[in-house]
């Protein structure tokens, strides 16, 4: 049974909120998504309303903290739940009352896993539009035929749209519209401050007015269209109701003129009626142009919009098409480890064969993976940014656009994945190469199972500039400072500028993080933004930022700001601000790190490269599949033996080698595991403790005691039972300098996994000492495979 406790949510002004004792309620949980009229407006963001309809039909809006709005919570939508509330009630709600939630659990034991509400939506699904006008607002912005014709089965029409994107699996044939009905109350009874503050009353009143002419159980969804200006957001979701003697959960939407005047917005809200959430790009809920459940407005110019139904909807993303049960099993491919080439058909009007979606598992998880789909500008997808492979990440029930941009930046151009380009997955050790375009899709090659490594780069130059002293250079400062420009006197503007060496960036960057050590801050927000700057306006800077040449005056006149940029750190941890700058490097190339700026914030002071904690770039990168792999082993056993003491064991921090009256030979044994591919080279590395003009020779010897099949051990090896040394040496050390590594080529003795045993001997009376595995510098066997 799914159950979890929720942290206390924010509650409004306490003097306006009566105290409510802890109580337990049960009923059906639904989600209503609120979409603002202008998603691009400052501060515009969707709001998810969690509503509990109790057994007696009362609606209660649940106040749940943003941090508790996890996929597990969304999986409860449409199910009976038991809710414990407590604390203060907020009187500011579109549904009364609103209660803060302490815990919520499913009332039935049915497990919830995978995507939220994964039931397929197939067959006929009739919808009804009810047009209502406020008692004091008489105009009817569209005639009823407008709404009825919107459901038609020709382009562009809702039935045609749903049939097209579902490959004939779903239709809304039989849908219709009724109205206009005059509501019993004036606009002010439903709309307050330009917002629909009484959704339920509007819904109930419209249903009551239409009831004599409608048998509601015939319909699966209800669109409420209403008139008037300045009426706020549109809404979509579900609601349990009893209509005409039938109790069930209906899909419901609330559509103001600005929404039903555009078919794309109508489809967006109907999608919420199927419990489809937004499909964000990074943190921008409306930044994904590839899914109608995100960006419903971009590229709706006059030549792409319909003269009657306005902006037309693009397709859903492949993960949603799959969730709704519309992608056939034989047209989905789960990519195995290794290299796989696959032909992907576009998801609208695809060819008769080929895959509609490829799934790229991340590790062993079954609920965390990437998806690939092909999109082309045809039919309802004609207003896409272009023809492209589209990548999403699916994690615990929700998916987001995954290109190589920072998750914490929505300030970016739209990336098209076209032939010849390569996407490096942030997780999972995989790359996707777009091989070619076809008339109806793309061919891609996916390579998985690649090794991920991490490297750290320190700034090669950094400084800050100050508006108050516009001609001063601070290149030697121990600090970096940033502060937004204001109208204050004296001026407050400060910017930090950093450079890293682009030549040290590996070719397959999966993730790149900029770390800045905070020394002082006046207030934590707004956070500083990180943005590339260039000495040219069409590409990244070809030369590094000059630490000793920048002043405030020169930065205001020279160069250009570039995108993408990020204005939100990934984390603020232990005094470090960490920014995801992956997208900057991938979009602009390695030269993006020639010049990075930190600016537009409250007052921050960071350590410079001259300070104790210099700025760093942390790079996660993949090893190319054709690149040799280097593996280093240390001995499992090492010791030396002495001819004058044939029965003595010498297991010490030193390996001694000499040829004299009493000979000394050293032995080393390695257990090689995990090697794959052919061995390209094997190098024995020894640290010199005592120097010698002759460091001896290395031989391949048996891993067994002399004349036995018992593996020799350092605790039992002595002159009398040591493996015999014979044949030609593998390599000779030459002069051995103290405090240096001696490297010996032992490639012929290493074929792959297994034991490798070596002896060190010398024809010279000059004694040399090497560090053993018990010492500070253990011997190493470095094996390169490919």
Describe this structure in words.
- The structure is a single chain.
- The radius of gyration is 34 Å and the shape is elongated.
- Helices cover 8% and strands 36% of the residues.
- Strand 20 and strand 21 form a beta hairpin.
- It is mainly beta.
- The longest helix is centred in the N-terminal third of the chain and has 12 residues.
- 45% of the residues are buried.
- The protein is built from 9 helices and 47 strands.
- Strands 25, 27, 29, 32, 33, 35 and 36 form a 7-stranded antiparallel sheet that branches.
Give a concise summary.
This protein is mainly β.
Q: Compute the CA-based radius of gyration.
A: 34 Å
Q: Structural class of the secondary elements?
A: mainly beta
% residues in beta strands? 35-45%
Structural shape:
elongated
Count every helix, treating DSSP H or I runs of 4 or more residues as helices. Answer: 9
Mean pLDDT reading: 88
Relevant terms:
786 residues, mainly beta, seven-stranded antiparallel sheet, six-stranded antiparallel sheet, 47 strands, 8% helix, 36% strand, disordered N terminus
């Amino acid at each position: 049974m799914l159950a979890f406790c929720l942290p206390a949510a924010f509650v409004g002004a306490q003097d306006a909120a009566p105290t409510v004792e802890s109580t337990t309620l049960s009923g059906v949980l639904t989600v209503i998504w609120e979409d603002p009229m202008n998603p691009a407006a400052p501060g515009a963001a969707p709001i998810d309303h969690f509503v509990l309809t109790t057994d007696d039909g009362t609606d209660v809006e649940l106040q749940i903290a943003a941090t508790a709005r996890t996929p597990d919570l969304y999986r409860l939508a449409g199910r009976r739940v038991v809710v414990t509330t407590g604390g203060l009630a907020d009187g500011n709600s579109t549904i009364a009352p609103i209660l803060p939630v302490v815990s919520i659990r499913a009332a039935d034991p049915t497990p919830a896993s995978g995507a939220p509400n994964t039931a397929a939506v197939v067959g006929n699904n009739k919808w009804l539009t009810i047009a209502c006008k406020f008692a004091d607002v008489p105009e009817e912005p569209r005639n009823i035929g407008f709404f009825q014709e919107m459901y038609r089965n020709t382009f562009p029409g809702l039935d045609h749209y749903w049939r097209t994107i579902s490959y004939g699996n779903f239709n809304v044939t039989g849908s219709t519209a009724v109205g206009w009905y005059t509501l019993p109350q004036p606009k002010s009874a439903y709309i307050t401050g330009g917002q629909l503050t009484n959704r339920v009353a509007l819904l109930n009143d419209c249903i009551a007015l239409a009831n004599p002419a409608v048998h509601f159980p015939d319909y699966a969804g209800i669109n409420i269209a209403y008139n008037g200006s300045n009426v706020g957001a549109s809404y979509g979701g579900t609601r349990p109701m009893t209509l005409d003697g039938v109790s069930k959960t209906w899909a419901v939407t609330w559509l103001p003129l600005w929404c039903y005047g555009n078919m794309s917005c109508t489809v967006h809200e109907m999608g919420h009626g199927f419990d489809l959430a937004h499909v964000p790009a990074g943190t921008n809920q409306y930044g994904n142009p590839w899914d109608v459940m995100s960006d419903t407005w971009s590229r709706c110019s006059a030549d792409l919009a319909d003269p009657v139904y306005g902006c037309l909807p693009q397709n859903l993303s492949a993960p949603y098409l799959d969730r709704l049960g519309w992608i056939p099993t034989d047209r989905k491919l789960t990519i195995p480890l290794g290299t796989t080439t696959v032909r992907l058909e576009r998801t609208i009007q695809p060819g008769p064969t080929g895959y509609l979606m490829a799934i790229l598992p991340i590790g062993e998880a079954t609920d965390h993976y990437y998806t690939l789909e092909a999109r082309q500008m045809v039919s309802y997808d004609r207003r896409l940014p272009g023809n492209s492979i589209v990548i999403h990440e699916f994690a615990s029930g929700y998916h987001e656009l995954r290109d190589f941009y920072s998750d914490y930046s929505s300030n970016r151009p739209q990336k098209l994945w076209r032939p010849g380009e390569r996407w490096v997955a942030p997780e999972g050790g995989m790359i996707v190469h777009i091989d070619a375009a076809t008339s109806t899709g793309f061919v891609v090659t996916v390579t998985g199972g690649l090794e991920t490594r991490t490297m750290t780069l320190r700034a090669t130059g950094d400084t800050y500039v100050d508006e108050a002293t516009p001609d001063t250079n601070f290149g030697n400062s121990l600090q970096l400072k940033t502060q937004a420009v204001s109208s204050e006197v004296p001026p407050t503007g400060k910017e930090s500028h950093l450079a890293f060496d682009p030549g040290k960036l590996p070719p397959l960057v999966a993730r790149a993080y900029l770390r800045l050590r905070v020394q002082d801050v006046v207030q934590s927000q707004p956070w500083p933004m990180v943005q590339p700057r260039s000495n040219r306006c069409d590409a990244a800077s070809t030369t590094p930022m000059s630490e000793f040449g920048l002043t405030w005056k020169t930065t205001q006149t020279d160069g250009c700001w570039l995108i993408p940029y990020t204005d939100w750190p990934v984390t603020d941890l232990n005094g470090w601000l960490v920014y995801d700058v992956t997208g900057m490097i991938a979009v602009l190339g390695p030269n993006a790190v020639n010049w990075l700026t930190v600016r537009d914030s409250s007052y921050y002071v960071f350590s410079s490269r001259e300070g104790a904690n210099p700025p760093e770039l942390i790079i996660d990168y993949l090893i190319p599949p054709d690149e040799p792999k280097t593996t280093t082993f240390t001995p499992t056993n090492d010791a030396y033996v002495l001819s004058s003491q044939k029965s003595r064991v010498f297991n010490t921090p030193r390996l001694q080698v000499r040829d004299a009256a009493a000979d000394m030979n050293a032995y080393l044994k390695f257990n090689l595991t995990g090697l794959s591919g052919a061995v390209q080279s094997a190098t024995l590395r020894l640290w010199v403790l005592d120097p010698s003009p002759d460091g001896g020779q290395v031989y391949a010897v048996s891993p067994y005691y002399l004349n036995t099949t018992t593996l020799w051990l350092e605790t039992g090896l002595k002159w009398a039972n040591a493996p015999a040394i014979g044949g030609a040496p593998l390599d000779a050390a030459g002069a051995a300098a103290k405090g240096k590594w001696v490297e010996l080529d032992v490639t012929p003795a290493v074929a792959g996994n297994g034991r490798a045993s070596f002896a060190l001997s010398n024809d010279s009376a000059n004694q040399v000492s090497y560090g053993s595995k018990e010492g500070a510098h253990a011997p190493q066997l470095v094996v390169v495979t490919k």
